[in-house]
Here is the input.
Amino acid sequence: MKRKCCFISLFVEEISKNIVEHGFSPGQQNSVVVKLIQSGETVTVSIKDTCRHFDPTLYYEKVNEKSSIDNGFGIKMIMKLSKNVIYTNNFNLNNLLVEV
Here is the structure.
């Protein structure tokens, strides 16, 4: 469980940093909601935001093709260390679920 907690902490920090750096629109109200959901041995990190649309799963596919260590390091880390990553955008709301 200790290792899982470290992963969760890293994931929340990296995703939140990316949202603030790349998603926030100047002069607009932006919001981010983070939830942790436990079901048995699986913990799901749910992050919803009202920022610019961004699908990290598509970005990962593009960056992974280039295989540059510098590009998308945080997203690569999340995709490789998590059990599953699901992105949807509904009603202009980014929804990211990361299963650990």
